[in-house]
């Protein structure tokens, strides 16, 4: 059944589906029914594993319906049922801004980040991360892997911008303090936030926080770091080791694989995995046989990424805080501007070697996959959240 072996890595290619449908319709011989049934089970697997594609892609929906019409005309009722997509739930939320239901007031919450407990901050960052990553579809991932860039891929671009926004925001929170002691307190707080993110199994935001604290604008602050306690330093070393790129991120992979239930992967690591598999393994072997090894590798990675679409975050957010966080993470500064602020806080020691944003004092958490992806905030989004924050302040 070579023509029916549709590569999962190309399953949004409508020409492949058209070819599969033609193979089903024109099939002849003693083994015809068995071949047709295999084709339908392949389609069923695709529908079950990637339901969002069959709800959002109009071309795919149309061709699947044509496929069903062919099965119906041939009198294959069992086949007809296998490729039924009528019961797939709506995935419109992946492309549209949803209207939030009004929530009963749960009491006032502090909108000053200094007063938030690490767990509260970690929970709200996790909510934002969850809402962002779960909107990324299979097609978005596929486009990035095939093209190697974010052209016409706004959903994935927003997720990467959120990652960079968190990393940058952590740096600015530290540098907003005027004394080394106060900066050390902020660093301590965000190390504790990283610890709570690990508890929540939100590895992506954990990587962003560690990346922010590992950035050269922060790690060059020797006087500030001298005020960190040994206990905090120990936790920090554990967090950096967890997301280290050593051994192809072996510490992270072990922790992620051992995690159960709700969990958010480090997006950049898994995107690199997808690109590596796509480049190293051909789609086909021996001309007409699908490369099963490649399909298995792609499936293992896609399963973790796409599973978030149906997962439920165990977090009840305070939407006032969400609006303020969103506004804060949308603030745009360049690398040079942040580094200049770092130099203002702790000027260079003339006797020490010069340090620049591109030559950090120690190895950083791997952020190269997201470099250059920070986008300037959408004015309409910023204004929306500003209005929300103003409304909350007026009611206080």
UniProtKB/TrEMBL annotation:
<dbReference type="InterPro" id="IPR001895">
    <property type="entry name" value="RASGEF_cat_dom"/>
</dbReference>
<comment type="similarity">
    <text>Belongs to the RASGRP family.</text>
</comment>
<dbReference type="GO" id="GO:0008270">
    <property type="term" value="F:zinc ion binding"/>
</dbReference>
<dbReference type="InterPro" id="IPR036964">
    <property type="entry name" value="RASGEF_cat_dom_sf"/>
</dbReference>
<dbReference type="InterPro" id="IPR023578">
    <property type="entry name" value="Ras_GEF_dom_sf"/>
</dbReference>
<feature type="compositionally biased region" description="Polar residues">
    <location>
        <begin position="352"/>
        <end position="361"/>
    </location>
</feature>
<keyword id="KW-0344">Guanine-nucleotide releasing factor</keyword>
<dbReference type="GO" id="GO:0007265">
    <property type="term" value="P:Ras protein signal transduction"/>
</dbReference>
<dbReference type="Pfam" id="PF00617">
    <property type="entry name" value="RasGEF"/>
</dbReference>
<feature type="region of interest" description="Disordered">
    <location>
        <begin position="349"/>
        <end position="370"/>
    </location>
</feature>
<protein>
    <recommendedName>
        <fullName>Ras-GEF domain-containing protein</fullName>
    </recommendedName>
</protein>
<keyword id="KW-0106">Calcium</keyword>
<keyword id="KW-0863">Zinc-finger</keyword>
<feature type="domain" description="Ras-GEF">
    <location>
        <begin position="117"/>
        <end position="348"/>
    </location>
</feature>
<dbReference type="InterPro" id="IPR008937">
    <property type="entry name" value="Ras-like_GEF"/>
</dbReference>
<keyword id="KW-0479">Metal-binding</keyword>
<dbReference type="GO" id="GO:0005085">
    <property type="term" value="F:guanyl-nucleotide exchange factor activity"/>
</dbReference>
<dbReference type="GO" id="GO:0005886">
    <property type="term" value="C:plasma membrane"/>
</dbReference>
<keyword id="KW-0862">Zinc</keyword>
